[in-house]
Amino acid sequence: MKRLNKAALATIVALSCTPIAPAMAQDADAGKQVFAQCTACHAVTATNGVGPGLLGIVGRKSASSPGFRYSPAMKRANLSWDEKALDAYLTDPQKTVPGNLMPFSGLADAKQRADLIAYLKMIK
Ligand code: HEC
Fold first, then answer.
1. Is-contact 34 118, C-beta < 8 A?
2. Domains in the chain and their CATH numbers?
3. Tens digits of per-residue pLDDT, 30-72?
4. Nearest-5° angle of CA 73, CA 79, CA 83?
5. Of 1, 7, 25, 73, which residue is least crowded by CB atoms under 10 Å?
6. What residues line ligand 1, using a CB cutoff of 6 Å?
């Protein structure tokens, strides 16, 4: 059996430690661009418009923006908008909260959703 020499071993170690993360890094600036699709209905403040104000949305309870008239479906959803719940809702609002009244079909691109959520995290 051939033994691996030190240089080969070092290469293997270096390769297996190479981070793959940068390609998937979340980018709040890119997320701000994605949020342009939401601004017709949502403010990044507590002010409600067509949709509820999104100030502090990441970590907030669903249907908790004071004074906003939520649909019965959203009132019943009883979610905590953590990253996972937001990712699911923004992928397919009707599948995640059936019967809710957000007139938005969803964002199919996972990177766009990750960027958008990185941006939403900053509005608090
Ligand atoms: C055409 C208007 C419209 C657009 C565009 C829209 N939304 Fe909404 N959104 C709403 C409405 C209306 C609701 C409340 C739904 C209900 O009560 O059933 C809502 C609810 C939400 C909620 C739940 C808020 C809470 O307080 O529980 C989140 C989160 C949200 N939208 C995020 C987004 C994001 C992010 C985008 C852009 C990708 C977006 N929305 C695009 C109208 C919109």
1. no
2. 25-122 (1.10.760.10)
3. 999 999 999 999 999 999 999 999 999 999 999 999 999 999 9
4. 125
5. 1
6. 37-38, 40-42, 50-52, 57, 62-65, 70-71, 73-74, 81, 86, 90, 100-104, 107, 116
